[in-house]
Amino acid sequence: MSSTPQFVETTGTARVKRGMAEQLKGGVIMDVVNAEQAKIAEDAGAVAVMALERVPADIRKDGGVARMSDPNMIEEIIEAVSIPVMAKSRIGHFVEAQVLQSLGVDYIDESEVLTPADEVNHSDKFAFTTPFVCGATNLGEALRRIAEGAAMIRSKGEAGTGNVVEAVRHLRQIKNEIAKLRGFDNNELYAAAKELRAPYELVKEVSELGKLPVVLFSAGGVATPADAALMRQLGAEGVFVGSGIFKSGDPAKRAAAIVKATTFYDDPKIIADASRNLGEAMVGINCDTLPETERYANRGW
Amino acid sequence: MTSPVVGVLALQGDVREHLVALATADAVARAVRRPEELAEVDGIVLPGGESTTISKLAVLFGLMEPLRARVRDGLPVYGTCAGMILLADKILDPRSGQETVGGIDMIVRRNAFGRQNESFEAAVDVRGVEGDPVEGVFIRAPWVESVGARAEVLAEYDGHIVAVRQDNALATSFHPELTGDHRMHALFVEMVRARQAAGSL
Predict the structure, then answer these.
(1) What is the mean pLDDT of each run of 10 residues along chain A (301 residues)?
(2) Range of the structural domain that residue B182 is part of
(3) How far A49 CA lies from chain B's nearest CA (Å)?
(4) Which ipTM score applies to this complex?
(5) DSSP label of B107
(6) Count of structural domains within chain B
(7) Closest Cβ opposite residue B139 in set A6, A23, A27
(8) Pairing state of beta strands A28-32 and A48-51?
(9) Closest by alpha carbon to A154, among A55, A238, A87?
(10) Considering only CA atoms, which of B122, B108, B131 is closest in space to residue B179?
(11) A54: which of A58, A83, A108, B17 fits an S-S bond (Cβ 3.0–4.6 Å)?
């Protein structure tokens, strides 16, 4: 007879939450603002959609406070597609997150693109069955989010700019800090944890694995097939594309092209073919002219 | 005996975990994204991921037909979750234009166990896997509504079919590649070896 205790069915475990993100790897997650766009994204081969009222480029343009989307709009999108649906809560706004969980979204993005609700605390993500993805600009920030229960990390980039420079900066930062940890011995890991302002156990785990213990995507500024492939070659396991698709001339075509380039990120011929005749890309903003207060990546800590 | 070469369809999904599991089960594991790479493997895994996405990319990059041909020809194949959907001869509620590789006479219901909030872990007894039950990780998982006469049911959970084998094709609703328990992969690699042995007689 087996002496192993029979384990009962359990939902919301770390394995189920992190495992969900593993299924998205190699794929593109697209921002959509209505059911019609969601279908275009699904048809183009998106692995998931992010349901939100305004894409980041419009949030920038409109100004004011950006909040969780209307539940009706989120439900319409859930109805329209069979791929997973994600939605954004404000940083620290755990009631918005509770609402999103009750709507049955598959992932909650505690996002700096919305106006933060708490300038000290992020939401306790262990309190939810629905998994969370969070943004990070460096390794310490990523590990603090994982310590709070995040099951997936995306480098922040600078959303709504169509400029990939910040996405590159943040992903390189995270990868470089991980590479540095790889060479540390046990004595050094305690000081590294202190410096990263992250739990020692997580720092040790990253040092041993040579990667984050959760899936790492890139976000914020991807606008072309080559941008997506660049993020993949730099080590992102997949990409979020926000304004880049539906703010461009031919969204269906651009969406399919970005999916292709994300799968064959190391094949310049396929990326070249995917880049042909896409029509106009979103106009884009130069990040060095953005005032500090309009830099979303500075939100969250 | 030399280790068999087992590919993992690497268009999208948890490819890395399958490569690790196959290597642990003594296979030479390789990512497959192109028809010429498919031609070189002795068996193939269709990983977990988004079945609609994988199916579209397979058609787009000319892999769907070669996959069908090789599976029809008896190439050992193992599909987990999305991979199970791809191995079904019929999907109950397909997205428009969603194609499958086929290979197992079964009807599959997508996301049958629910959305992510209903995703769960549970112990599953699998016929042909010795010892303790397999730790089943079910993520927005499908189940099998019904199987034809040639398909053998290997496991049920909560009254639903979650593991099936037909000749050289194996499919599970759950994700053994996420658990570190590689007995399902060992079972599959045995199937690959058995076919190699039969071919060399």
Answers:
(1) 54 96 98 96 96 89 91 97 97 98 98 95 97 98 98 95 94 97 94 97 97 97 96 98 89 96 97 93 76 84 80
(2) 5-199
(3) 12
(4) 0.95
(5) E
(6) 1
(7) A23
(8) parallel
(9) A238
(10) B122
(11) A58
